[in-house]
Amino acid sequence: MAQCEVVRVPRPGRQTVEVRAAPAHEPLASCRFEWPARWRVHTCAWAPPPRGQASVLFGMNAGPGDALVVSVARFGLEVDALGWLEGHVGPARFRGATPSWRGLSVAALDEPQPGPAWRAVVSGPAVHLLEAHGQARRWLDRAAATLRSLTPFEPSAEGVRGLSLGPLTFSALAAWRANTATERVPHGHAVAVLRRTTSEGHLAGWLRVHVVDRRVLVGVNPDTLRAETAPDWVSQGFTLGEADSATGASGPLARHSGEWQGRSVEVACAERQIGPCWVRADVVTPGLERAPVSALNGRRALDVALATARVSLRP
Question: For a Cys-Cys bond, which of 3, 54, 83, 202 suits 73, CB 3.0-4.6 Å?
Fold first, then answer.
């Protein structure tokens, strides 16, 4: 265990400083962000946390009740930061707060005043957590945004690669590989299937993206598209519970808990109208209680695919 080294560097022409935190021998936990000057720094004995758990790096305060606590959790893969935050603060407390996203990389959770607010920042295969109390809440969004822009992440954030699917282009996390087999679909439809496997070769996630070009299928009712693009889970041996609505970085989505071949699974899906295209994406992972990192990585893969989806209107 060692103290996290914290340095404050003045920012020219501003009443703020750049806070630089660097735990010994742990570049993945390092971070930088903008914060008001004159806040006092409090370091603590820091040790690398177990996978998926948060460990406090340091704290800052400016007076009674005004405090910021900075922590980090490590996963080895990109994860759904808001889903992880729910487990971190507890489901009961999560339900009493307001969840949201600030773009694709910053998850937000706000309790009513005088309670705290949190920002969970996806830092490649890690998540930095900022917990703010009192006046620190005023500066929280700026700190989260600058943590993404100022921090030179090492090792690099998990890579993404671009994929084309009919008129649609989207990004996929590097660990998710497109299936070589192609699915037979009607004219105007296109389907891509991506899989993530473990180092032992076991399937850890399955992502399917189905695109319908409405320039080809003019005037088709959305209910018809919904029925045509939905996978037949029952025929594939899945037993799913009722859908729970969720807040994803890409927008609203639905999640089901269920079973497949006697093992718990999680199925998440979302539908979007992107330009002239109807897009449905489904992801299947082991259940959250059975393999939390795989489940959170699957949620992240779904969000990345949908949030980066674009349509080329060129002929």
Answer: 54
